[in-house]
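We read letters as residues; the integers encode the fold. Take this protein.
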Amino acid sequence: MKFQKEEPPGEEGMPVQLRPYSIRARFTLVTAVLSLIVFTLIGIGLDFAIRIRIQDGIFAESQRLATSWIDWQPYAAPQPVTTTRIDLLQFTDSHGRVLAASRAAGHVPISTLHPPPDDRIRHGISCTPERCVAFTVVRLPLLQTTMLWSGEPHFVYAGMVQPPILSGHRLEWLTGLGIALMSALSAWVAWWVVGRTLRPVAEIRARTAEITVSDLSLRLPQPPGRDEIAQLARTTNRTLARLEEAVNQQRQFASVVSHELRTPVSALYTRLEEAVLYPDEVDLRETVAAALSTTERMHAIINDILVLARIRTVIPAPPEPIDLGALVAEESAGQVNGAPVRTRTAAGLIILGNRIQLIGVLNNLLVNACRHAQTTVDVSMARAGGYAVVNVVDDGAGIAPEDRERVFEPFVRLADGRRLDPGGSGLGLAICRGIVSAHHGTLSIEDSPRGARFVLRLPLMETNRSTAHV
């Protein structure tokens, strides 16, 4: 059992307190203390029960023998004989004189205890320095004493020397030894059971020490069963898997950001270097204008990166009820560039969300659709399974099935997108999906007869409330 020293601050010279610092040691100590208390109480009760049981047996047998001896007229027997363990028999008068006795009893009175007139039988224990005798004394009936001894009381004593287990402290010593052994056995069982239970914890701790940020592929050993330790291991492994995925995404994101920023930075560096090296050959106004355009592109990319980072890390503002149909109609009416937008809204589709963020999502989807459409953009709404569904469909070239998930990745831009929007950062759809995910919805691209069909699903307010009450 391991212990650690515990010294009060600023109390030099005070006695050192020791306390076990391992769970196994603490449980074993608590089990030992509780077992000692419980077994001590049981031992005390058992000690009393054994004493009472043995004494009651002696008293019952001695009473039976004494009353039987009275029936045999013991006053006429010069030396009574017994064949049971009750070997001490005496017949005495009221002055304590022994009138008849068994060989083992002798002529020294067993006791001077006399039953009261209203109770013919008494039990007792008489002790001398040599021995203790458990006995029963019986008063002879009044009719016999009146006829034979003129009413003088006479008594019959029957008893035996107390067994060694009662006369000394042997029973207490045996009980104490049993208490100590049972408490030690309980402590050992607790030590073994807790050690076996915590064995997976030691393996989990050793494996956890091997996991580093540079290598998150290791997983904790999962013990069999469904106890708390097994559930902890499974939950931790799922957390490690999510953490590994997040770290990989961050690494990939950082790599993509570095690549996207390297191009405009390199171009800016090259132009400025040419202006410094060849001041007479370079048009400074043109160089400054180009540098300003590159800086604006870098500024737009950085702003989009910050927006995407805030969506992933910053706690969103408290949601508010929003009439999604009115919001879609308002944003559709505000699109004046590109193909016209035809809108079919639905009433009563109330959601909980951040109005500013959802406006950004709708605006981005509508701008993309208007940019890629040839003649028109159709926006429709419906209710489906507790969700408000918004379909934004253009009649452009569409998106190939293998690219429908790629376009939501940061900085991914298809050839058609680069051609129609050369200054774009490629973060718009990634930001939209991040916002929609934060609202517990989905944003995807689904099949359409012609063009691209973006489908936005957001949980209705009654769905959010019912989920919150589960």
The CA atoms of residues 62 and 81 lie 14 Å apart. The two ends are 46 Å apart (CA to CA). The longest strand covers residues 132-139.
